[in-house]
């Protein structure tokens, strides 16, 4: 079976609680060359805010996925290509590993399993709200990160492994260790990507780079540069094979 993210190099993560830069539109976001949009954030996500982003982005060619931060914010909307449901492998509170998922499945009947996929997060920035929220143990060496990645792929069948440094640029050595540990699963990297160089570097050590804050802080021109960095790194990896 093949999955859409196997062809992606770059994702733009849109926080429905934050605005775009003045004068920019969601059409501009869709024209950056990014391969997919992930809509979600940790704080203050409401149904109205989610719907507003879906409404504004669904008409373009770029696939859109919701990434819910808790079961209460999932939107049932045919225009979404699917749902990317996090599970945090290094959370201390099991609610963020399987508990929230159990609650979700218990309250929702008729989940669309064909459009529902999981992302195995390894949360690495202790100062991020996602680390606090999930009580993640971020003190992980490169070997630890690689081992989590391998466990996620081989023992838990995860198709997407996500090394998450949300808000800060990560350690390329740890990201590379996760990448090397995987056979077929797709490695997402996110955190602090802010220009061509940073996207290019992490693009060399992962399959897909995820860009979040930059869109809301700097805007679409900056995001476009990161698309170029990620695409150039990916093209080189393909050439090297
Ligand atoms: C079962 C369902 C439907 C949901 C559970 C989902 C889980 C386990 C969520 C855990 C938290 C998580 C990994 C959320 C994903 C989104 C994310 C990392 C957002 C980053 O949040 P920001 O609001 O940008 O905050 P920081 O950058 O400060 O971390
Ligand atoms: O906001 P940034 O630091 O780009 O991080 C992107 C993403 O991994 C957040 O979940
Ligand atoms: Mg963030």
TrEMBL record:
Substrates-to-products reaction catalysed: sn-glycerol 1-phosphate + (2E,6E,10E)-geranylgeranyl diphosphate = sn-3-O-(geranylgeranyl)glycerol 1-phosphate + diphosphate
SUPFAM superfamilies assigned to the protein according to its UniProt record, in alphabetical order: FMN-linked oxidoreductases
Its job: Prenyltransferase that catalyzes the transfer of the geranylgeranyl moiety of geranylgeranyl diphosphate (GGPP) to the C3 hydroxyl of sn-glycerol-1-phosphate (G1P). This reaction is the first ether-bond-formation step in the biosynthesis of archaeal membrane lipids.
Organism superkingdom: Archaea
Subcellular location: Cytoplasm
Organism of this sequence: Haloferax profundi
NCBIfam families on file: GGGP-family, GGGPS_Halobact, PRK04169.1-3
Listed InterPro entries: GGGP/HepGP_synthase_I, GGGP/HepGP_synthase_sf, GGGP_HepGP_synthase, GGGPS_halobacteria
Protein's name according to its UniProt entry: Geranylgeranylglyceryl phosphate synthase
Primary localization: cytoplasm
């Amino acid at each position: 079976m093949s999955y859409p993210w196997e062809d992606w190099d770059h994702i733009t993560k849109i926080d429905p609680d934050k605005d775009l830069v003045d004068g920019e539109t969601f059409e501009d976001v869709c024209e950056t060359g990014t391969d997919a949009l992930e809509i979600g954030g940790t704080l203050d996500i409401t149904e109205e805010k989610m719907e507003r982003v879906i409404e504004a982005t669904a008409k373009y060619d770029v696939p859109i996925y919701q990434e819910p931060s808790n079961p209460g914010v999932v939107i049932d909307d045919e225009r979404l290509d699917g749902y990317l449901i996090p599970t945090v492998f290094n959370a201390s509170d099991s609610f963020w590993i399987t508990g929230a998922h159990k609650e979700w499945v218990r309250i929702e009947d008729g989940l669309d399993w064909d459009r529902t996929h999981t992302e195995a997060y390894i949360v690495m920035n202790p100062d991020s709200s996602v680390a606090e929220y999930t009580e993640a143990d971020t003190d992980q060496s490169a070997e630890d990160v690689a081992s989590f990645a391998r466990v996620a792929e081989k023992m838990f069948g995860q198709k997407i492994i996500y090394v998450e440094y949300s808000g800060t640029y990560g350690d390329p050595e740890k990201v590379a260790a996760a990448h090397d540990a995987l056979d077929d699963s797709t490695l997402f990297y996110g955190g602090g990507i802010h220009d061509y160089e940073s996207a290019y570097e992490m693009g060399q050590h992962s399959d897909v780079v995820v860009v979040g804050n930059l869109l809301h802080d700097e805007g679409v021109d900056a995001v476009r540069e990161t698309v170029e960095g990620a695409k150039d790194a990916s093209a080189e990896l393909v050439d090297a094979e």
